[in-house]
């Protein structure tokens, strides 16, 4: 059997050794390995000879896809990330597992969602009573950074308390079910003393230590009042920081958060206190959020709760759009698109990420704020291009992108006073284009 030397180590471990593999996958695995090792054919356990074309087909059947690689579900542009059970620091698992969710897993999944072109918004589906203080605030800070790139909605279905409330406060908005529970902005430490039990069984433990506070809170003696006071002081400081984090996230005063005294609020009560924004049926939350994504307010801003449309809006039978209206709307749309592209490609972030910036500007519908946010957290490309090289790259990319589009025939000749309203709009459009890209 001929194979590449680079695969000798893998082959030595895969061949002539016991493996715990499901039979169908085993054939696929060895088929893919055979291709990469330069093997032209493979004989399976039934004596069937598989040629190279069949090996290619078999290997591709188990090839990775974006759907398989995603650590979250995507529904019509909405990434759904469950946050359930106890929240743990450095848990090591991307997905919730065994009744717990890791802060590291939440950040990892959000990072993937921010760079996923198919994701327009994210839902953190909370059902957690909280967890470890360690890692919580760092995770909340990351959520706040990511919400500036794409909207992140927190759904309390049905528990978002303590550490989970800290994470929920960092979201763009918080939705809660009628039975959902939110709040518990407080900190606790449980101390267990075995002193009396040890006395009863005749065990005497002596703690030899250096440093006055080294054995504070040990379980072998009743908690002294002075130690309890020091622990309480640290808890008060942590609670104050917790309240400030929630206050910063949901825009209510820190004193108002502290005044809740770590109470838990249900449904509408949580909305009244400011811990949630909208009451929803848990089964209808995803369809409702999909409507938000599709609306004009879906990207980069919170959903408007104003039920009365502006008086100037034209709706229903009163809507009478003329050709002039359509032309004006088309011109304004083209102007906004050119300004979006220019803001991305002419940004400081694009200077060392030209390839990615060009893709975001010309091949996606990301807003300029979203694109710049993603560029900031992305790795720089090989070398930093100078302004002339950047201009050449942008110009070439724009020419290529525009070559397939039908361009308007704009006639802007004549004095300004003689131009029609449409021609003035056309001149304004050209001026905007020149301002962004140069003549």
TrEMBL record:
<keyword id="KW-0720">Serine protease</keyword>
<dbReference type="InterPro" id="IPR033855">
    <property type="entry name" value="Protein_C"/>
</dbReference>
<dbReference type="Pfam" id="PF01343">
    <property type="entry name" value="Peptidase_S49"/>
</dbReference>
<feature type="region of interest" description="Disordered">
    <location>
        <begin position="301"/>
        <end position="320"/>
    </location>
</feature>
<comment type="similarity">
    <text>Belongs to the peptidase S49 family.</text>
</comment>
<dbReference type="InterPro" id="IPR029045">
    <property type="entry name" value="ClpP/crotonase-like_dom_sf"/>
</dbReference>
<feature type="domain" description="Peptidase S49">
    <location>
        <begin position="147"/>
        <end position="286"/>
    </location>
</feature>
<keyword id="KW-0378">Hydrolase</keyword>
<feature type="compositionally biased region" description="Basic and acidic residues">
    <location>
        <begin position="421"/>
        <end position="439"/>
    </location>
</feature>
<dbReference type="InterPro" id="IPR002142">
    <property type="entry name" value="Peptidase_S49"/>
</dbReference>
<feature type="region of interest" description="Disordered">
    <location>
        <begin position="380"/>
        <end position="439"/>
    </location>
</feature>
<protein>
    <submittedName>
        <fullName>S49 family peptidase</fullName>
    </submittedName>
</protein>
<feature type="compositionally biased region" description="Acidic residues">
    <location>
        <begin position="402"/>
        <end position="420"/>
    </location>
</feature>
<keyword id="KW-0645">Protease</keyword>
